[in-house]
């Protein structure tokens, strides 16, 4: 009953925010789908938009989040690309159909994870392994999209090879297509650096694609023709525009379960499940901090909702979805109050897809590439490197290890290398093997307060028992943690404790951290690792 009470109370603000979010999501979903699927579908645009539609109309009704927006995300582009390549053996369409089958199984695993109430484990994943992973994804996005923005098809496949080909693509660029890509890129940059309050209220991706579409109409991209520039002959045509089929429903591929139990497929299933779950739960936590009403996401309910959405999308030819942080932040900024804004965002996208496909077809692919270059830059911007360094030199090493191995091998290898480096750092700093997965701590309970006294090393693999105790006891009593017996706290644990303190304060509770100053931080960062 509560959802309909919320609808009656907040429908105006949620409807307005949902409409604005649909305008932001429209070009992003199409661009993300094109970058993810390539020629693995009759229409990547349809797959991308149908994913956001399901994220809005279905997942919003099941979600444990309050103002999160669900849809395809740039952080999953590499997962989809790798899955299609590894399962297709050169056949992109077959690869995508087998990827869809893997996605349905990954969605089922997400549902099981939520039902077993395991979602809380995501919050303890090493911070700079995550940041290194996302930075690598940003670099990979840029390496591919710069060629599309120039109107050139590169020969290389690896990120480093694609960057090496940039000078050649510049020399071979299609000038009018490059002008469209550059125009979209300039619009995104202007909106990103502008301090204007007016511009902040306007969806930059929408402005970029509208401008690009107008230029595309001027260049007559809908009809194949030649033009000469500086003595060279160039060709323009519909292949430079977003492709939409005559029948949208018929364009959606169906899953192929023929190789579902192969080793490659099992790796793809794990990659979708792990990365999509981790990103979605971390995004939900981040959005909670932006929520003006300071509401907390039910993470287990959230992961179940995402699992339902991903299972459904696997069967109807969509992309994996998460609670997407950028669109969710915009949702809060536009005054959304409840998950009905997510529902309305999906509803408006459905109207756009089924009612005005001819307008969507006018969007040039180069414009979407220009937008995605900025998306990639935001994931891998220089400040991410600085933030890792500020948290301690060892955090920068973990960040760079994850980034470089992801670029040189693949995403799962990068995550594994980052985790291995994290464990190596812990061993170097004296963490005992017996402490890796078990934290020793005492509970001293009085009538009004509970004192938790941990001993030894407090690290990301053993912190959960302590944080679970804090959450359990603060429902009824004041809680304090005495760190006098702690020898080492890693960065991830320190960050989790800082968030826990702030979360309790926002809820009107108190979490006291005693003797934390006895531990010397490795840097000036408030969540830096500490040593006795």
Features:
transmembrane, single chain, globular, 532 residues, 7-stranded mixed β-sheet, Transcription Regulator spoIIAA, alpha/beta, STAS_dom, two-stranded antiparallel ribbon
Describe this structure in words.
The chain crosses the membrane at residues 67-84, 96-116, 123-142, 177-193, 202-219, 259-282, 303-323, 343-376. Keywords: Membrane, Transmembrane, Transmembrane helix. It comes from Turneriella parva (strain ATCC BAA-1111 / DSM 21527 / NCTC 11395 / H). By secondary structure, this protein is an alpha/beta fold. It has 3 domains: 13-375, no CATH class; 384-428, no CATH class; 434-531, STAS domain (Transcription Regulator spoIIAA). The chain contains 22 helices and 11 strands. It has helices at residues 2-37, 44-62, 77-88, 92-115, 127-150, 159-164, 166-172, 175-193, 197-200, 204-218, 248-251, 263-290, 299-316, 325-333, 340-355, 357-360, 365-380, 382-390, 393-408, 411-428, 464-473, 491-506, and strands at 69-71, 225-229, 232-236, 322-324, 440-445, 449-458, 478-482, 486-489, 511-514, 520-521, 530-531. The strands form 3 sheets. Strands 5, 6, 7, 8, 9, 10 and 11 form a 7-stranded mixed β-sheet that branches. A two-stranded antiparallel sheet has the order 1-4. Strands 2-3 form a two-stranded antiparallel ribbon. Helix 4 (92-115) packs across helix 12 and helix 5 (127-150) packs across helix 19.
């Amino acid at each position: 009953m509560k959802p309909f009470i919320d609808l009656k109370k907040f429908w105006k603000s949620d409807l307005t925010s949902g409409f604005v979010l649909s305008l932001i999501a429209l070009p992003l979903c199409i661009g993300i789908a094109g970058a993810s699927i390539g020629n693995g579908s009759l229409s990547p645009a349809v797959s991308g938009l149908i994913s956001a539609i399901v994220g809005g109309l279905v997942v919003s009704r099941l979600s444990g989040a309050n103002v999160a927006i669900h849809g395809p995300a740039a952080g999953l582009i590499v997962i989809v690309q790798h899955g299609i390549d590894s399962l297709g053996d050169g056949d992109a369409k077959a690869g995508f159909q087998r990827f869809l089958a893997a996605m349905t199984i990954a969605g089922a695993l997400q549902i099981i994870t939520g039902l077993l109430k395991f979602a809380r484990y995501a919050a303890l994943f090493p911070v700079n392994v995550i940041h290194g992973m996302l930075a690598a994804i940003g670099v990979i996005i840029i390496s591919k999209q710069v060629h599309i923005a120039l109107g050139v098809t590169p020969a290389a496949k690896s990120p480093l090879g694609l960057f090496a080909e940039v000078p050649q693509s510049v020399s071979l660029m299609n000038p009018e297509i490059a002008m469209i890509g550059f125009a979209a890129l300039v619009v995104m940059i202007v909106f990103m650096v502008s301090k204007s309050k007016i511009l902040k209220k306007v969806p930059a991706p929408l402005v970029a694609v509208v401008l690009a579409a107008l230029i595309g109409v001027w260049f007559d991209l809908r009809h194949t023709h030649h033009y000469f520039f500086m003595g060279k002959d160039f060709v323009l045509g519909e292949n430079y525009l977003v492709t939409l089929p005559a029948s949208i429903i018929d364009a959606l591929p169906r899953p192929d379960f023929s190789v579902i139990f192969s080793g490659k497929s099992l790796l793809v299933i794990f990659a979708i499940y792990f990365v999509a779950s981790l990103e979605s739960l971390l995004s939900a936590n981040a959005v909670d901090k932006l929520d003006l009403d300071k509401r907390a996401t039910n993470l287990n309910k959230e992961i179940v909702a995402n699992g339902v959405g991903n299972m459904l999308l696997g069967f109807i030819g969509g992309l994996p979805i998460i609670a997407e942080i950028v669109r969710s932040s915009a949702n809060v900024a536009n005054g959304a109050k409840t998950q009905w804004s997510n529902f309305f965002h999906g509803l408006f996208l459905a109207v756009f897809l089924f009612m005005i496909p001819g307008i969507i077809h006018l969007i040039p692919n180069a414009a979407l590439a220009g937008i995605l270059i900025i998306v990639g830059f935001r994931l891998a911007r220089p400040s991410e490197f600085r933030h890792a360094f500020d948290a301690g030199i060892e955090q920068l090493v973990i960040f760079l290890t994850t980034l470089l191995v992801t670029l040189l091998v693949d995403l799962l290898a990068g995550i594994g290398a980052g985790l291995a480096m994290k464990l190596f750092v812990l061993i170097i700093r004296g963490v005992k093997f017996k402490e890796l997965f078990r934290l020793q701590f005492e509970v001293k309970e009085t009538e009004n307060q509970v004192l938790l006294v941990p001993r030894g090393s407090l690290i990301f693999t053993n912190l959960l028992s302590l944080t679970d105790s804090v959450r359990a006891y603060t429902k009824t009593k004041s809680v304090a943690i005495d760190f006098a017996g702690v020898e080492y706290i890693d960065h991830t644990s320190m960050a989790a404790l800082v968030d826990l303190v702030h979360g309790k304060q926002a809820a009107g509770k108190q979490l006291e951290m005693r003797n934390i100053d006895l531990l010397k931080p490795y840097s000036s960062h408030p969540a830096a690792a500490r040593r006795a």
